[in-house]
Amino acid sequence: MKTGLVLEGGAMRGLFSAGVTDVMMENGISFDRLVGVSAGAAFGCNYKSGQHGRAVRYNTRFAKDKRYCSMQSLVRTGDLFGAKFCYHTVPNKLDVFDREAFNNSPMEFYLVCTDCATGLPVYKRCDVADDTCFEWIRASASMPLVSKPVELEGKMLLDGGISDSIPLKFMIRGGFEKNVVVLTRPRGYEKQPASMMPMMKLTLRRYPNLLDAMNNRHNNYNNSRRLVFAEEKAGRAFVICPDEPLPIGRIEHDADKMRAAYNIGRAIGERNLEALKRFMNI
């Protein structure tokens, strides 16, 4: 029976998921496939490379570094999160990503982007941790309004959360019968229509299908959550999520708040560990 791990995005809320997945890694829990969206991809790649602790380490280290995330970067480059610094300088020089471990791991690693031309999700499998892989991760995490579209394989791409925030259906279609889903919002959360649509219509007017996807994102997101909990009720999914809204924003420069979100994830991961092992038949 194939097992999958689904990691929702949420920008810095993803540090909650990093706390959960670090507990899993430390306890030897493995999966046949991981699919991550946005921060779920950016932080989840460390699962395939076996680098527990890395996500919270580099985020707290560079929390106030203008090269990492700043309005200065947005004004100068069009990207709030510095493309070169975040996705190349950090993993290649400052907090080195273990490319060899990633390449040798048998776990499939997928990420989700959104095709600006069609408004549809693009599911990309990355087997080799090269600079192109890091660019795919950047595309998956490129939030509209604060990021430029990333061009890869002839497509202009943005945040995968626009088109498929919780890609559990993708895993089910792939034949994965048991899936662990890590959400970054509490169980009672329901997404509302985007408040920034007027600004998006102005800045992204050349991509009408993308705007349609953004306008309908809250419906798709809420439907995805209903599927998650239906699968949980049927015994085919194991869901881990925060008990209440996380004390961190999508954008965060306070290292203490980052650690707090991460530690909440660790605590909930540890609380669910034995039940998770039973679900995984470990």
Condensed summary:
Helix content is 46%, strand content 14%. By secondary structure, it is an alpha/beta fold.
Please tell me about this protein's structure.
The protein is of the alpha/beta class and 282 residues long. Helix content is 46%, strand content 14%. Strands 1, 2, 3, 4, 5, 6, 7 and 8 form an 8-stranded mixed beta sheet that branches. Strand 3 and strand 4 (121-125) form a beta hairpin. Helix 1 packs across helix 12. The longest helix has 17 residues, at 217-233. It is globular, with a radius of gyration of 17 Å.
Give the percentage of residues in beta strands: 5-15%
Work out the number of β strands: 8
Name the shape in a single word: globular
Q: What is the element string, with H for helices and E for strands?
A: EHEHHHHHEEHEEHEHHHEHH
Which structural class is indicated by helix and strand composition?
A: alpha/beta
- Helical stretch tally: 13
Major sheet details: 8 strands, mixed
Cα end-to-end separation = 13 Å
Q: Rg from C-alpha positions?
A: 17 Å
Characteristic terms for this protein:
alpha/beta, 13 helices, 282 residues
List the helices and strands and how they pair.
Elements: E1 3-7, H1 14-26, E2 33-37, H2 39-49, H3 54-61, H4 71-77, H5 83-94, H6 99-104, E3 108-115, E4 121-125, H7 131-140, E5 150-152, E6 155-159, H8 168-173, E7 178-182, H9 197-203, H10 208-215, H11 217-233, E8 237-240, H12 255-271, H13 273-279
Helix pairs in contact: 1-2, 1-12, 3-12
